[in-house]
Amino acid sequence: MRSNEMSIEILAMGLKEAAEAVGLSHWTLRKLIAEDKLSAFRVGRRVLVEPEALRQLVERGKETTETPGPSGTSQMQVKG
Question: Which positions ≥6 away from 50 have C-beta within 8 Å?
Answer without folding.
Answer: 11, 12, 39
